[in-house]
Amino acid sequence: MEERIVEFTNVLRRNGVRVSLSENMDAFRALGLVGIRDPHLFRNALRTTLVKRSSDVKPFEELFDFFFLGIGQAIDALDRRIMEELGLTPSQFQEMLEQIQKLLKQMEGDLSELTRALLTGNRGELERLLREAASQEAETGAADSFRLTPYTRMAARLGLDRVHTDVERFKGMLQMLAESGEDLQNVIRYLDERMRDLNRLLREIIQQEQRKRGVEPNDLSQRSSFADKSFSFYTEDDIRRMNEAVARLAQRLKNRLSVRRKKAARGRFNVKATLRRNLQYGGVPFHIEVDRRKKTKPQVMILCDISDSVLNASRFMLQFVYSVQDLYSKVRSFVFVSEIGEVTRLFEEHEIHHAVEAALKGDVIDVFSHSNFGRAFELFYKNYFPAVSGKTTVLIIGDGRNNYNRPNEWVLKEIQQKAKQLIWLNPESRMTWGVGDSEMPRYALHCDVAEECRSINQLYKVVDLIAP
Amino acid sequence: MFQSVDEVVTGLGGQSYICNKNVATVVYLGTRLQKPILVEGPAGVGKTELGKVLAGALGMELIRLQCYEGLDEAKALYEWEYAKQLLYTQILKDKIGEVLHGTQTLQQAVDCIANQDGVFFSDRFLLPRPLLKALLAERPSVLLIDEVDKSDAEFEAFLLEVLSDFQITVPEIGTLKAKHIPLVVLTSNNSREMSDALKRRCLHLYLDFPDSEREMEIIKLKVPGVGEQLAKEVVRLLHRLRKLDLKKTPSISESLDWVKALTLLNIKQLDSEIVEQTLSTLMKYEADIRKAHQELKAYIAERKARQGTSTGDGDKDHLH
């Protein structure tokens, strides 16, 4: 049993749950107390000792099912989780599966075996297919090719790309139906969840197979490179991880702030004030008086380009803007394409994802026009320039691609003269600045800082600029 | 001390705190392994309450430390009372004179005073704050460190020493070791992620909003006069409201307030008018109230439809 648990912690670690040695020891001590007979207690004991972040609970539950209960039961557990996620009772879930079956029949062209088994919730079939592929892999796998990863080999064996296209096709059909008024939200969400589950199952099976053969699976490399990855290459998975990163970034900002407050509280020793205050004790200094440094909260105005050309980056940037606004009281946020609109209120009142989506969807400004920085700047000057003061940091996020419109760089000049600093973050590589319709060199002239900001690591540096 | 997980459930139940097996397991392990318990979860699910009832169930003293930004050792651990020390020396001037009476040289006088060191540097002048109080308590106690996420990162680092070794070094006196290891409960609202180092030293418990049945139990327990029908409706509506994207999700304590208000007004069944009038006990933001109104209308319409088709059967239906 001990070995099993150590192995389990290794699996957790490989899936991004941090488990330290001392936590592992705690788990053993806890199991010594509650025993391993009651599966419920066993699970609870492991969870409370090994998992410390609420975001890790879900992976833990899934891996636990998989590790201690095997493939078949893991599939069962995934079903249950999907039900919970969608808020369905078992009978409703069954109904939905039947509905899907009907819809699948309507669809033209065949589906692969795996797609059918996966979508209709046919557990027996799904398990059989996975096991078959796994045992084939075990027999021939390593000899097959030295360039492909086991995952791609398994994926090819199972026809995973086929499943992807099938599901996409199916989704397309659903979307058409949904437009004609049918309520298919749940079904679509179900599909997404299912695809994710399949991927996860697959990885886990591969790892187990490899472990049997004594090969240590290795996917640690992903984590570190993520921070350096350019926004525009983000995949769905990355976007999810990005949320976590934004939270960390905001934390970093917050920490800087609290350190600064500490310094302000200490201040410099003031002899005169101390003497005066302690006259009543005959000059014995009970109370120390210090010159308090003034706490200056940063006043930030953020202008974020949300045109199509920088879509991935601006999604991330808006999340960042949202977090910044959450931290500081004096932040005003704007989005622009060719018009400019304020989103401060929107961000205040709504939860982060909703707010960001609303801003990108065009609730505030028309997002389908062509970007026109010049016009946006002019409008900003007209409507909001009086709000810029000597304490304001103005932060512009955009690629500076102006579609050959009038650049109006005089606005930036004005801002720079009046504001404390003007920072421009460009999600494009510095090499391409000034190429084509990019007005970046012209704009950069008037910025105190113009930085390329294409990944989280580069954004970290910017944080230091805002809250020095 | 608890002997089994079931004992925890009954023990806390005796303090009118309803908990499930997950919670009970963590509490049991916490008491037996003598490890701090870090409780996380949304506001108002009974995190702080858990610490309080734990003290009640075990018959221990509850020592509470409320964290906030800027909390430092002087307020959490101990303070050295310079003023009192100085005052004592002033008052005892004559006595000191007597002690020094026989001495001839300055050297002798200093030695003489040095012998009396203990008088000036004793725990007499040590003003214990919650942490020190918990360590020095004569009997085992429950130390509740509330909203630890509100404190600074520095304070959190400082807590590490206390929580892992249960001892504190006071420069004036020396190292003080805990007489009894207190049962520590930390609560966090997740306004920031706690450091891994702190989490490593704790058992982790995530408290979430209770399911419908458990919430019914809680409401019935805490508001004895509540009608069965009303409680059911309230719980059903609450669960719908919690699914909305609200600025502040209604907590258990707020829902209890609401039920109390409704019971006081002698309401037997929810209708849109009465809910509108009392919604302010449940919702604290204007935007939330607006959203809740819409949900409420949908709910009442649905109920009407249900009652229309099958009179009386509606109650057995589940939510969703």
Please, could you describe this protein's structure?
The complex is a heterodimer of chains A (468) and B (320). In chain A, 62% of the residues lie in helices and 8% in strands. Chain A has 468 residues and is α/β, with parallel strands linked by helices. In chain A, the strands form 2 sheets. In chain A, strands 5-4-3-6-7-8 form a 6-stranded mixed sheet, with helices on both faces. The longest helix of chain A has 33 residues, at 54-86. The two termini of chain A are 52 Å apart. The model of chain A is unreliable at 216-224 (pLDDT under 50). Chain B is of the alpha/beta class and 320 residues long. Chain B is 52% helix and 12% strand. Chain B has 16 helices and 9 strands. Chain B has helices at 5-14, 21-33, 47-58, 73-76, 82-91, 93-99, 106-115, 117-120, 130-136, 153-165, 196-200, 212-222, 228-243, 252-264, 272-278, 286-309; strands at 37-40, 61-66, 78-80, 126-128, 141-146, 167-170, 174-177, 183-188, 203-206. Chain B has a 5-stranded parallel sheet with strand order 2-5-8-1-9, sandwiched between helices. Chain B starts with a helix and ends in an 11-residue tail after the last helix. The interface between A and B is large, with 40 and 38 residues.
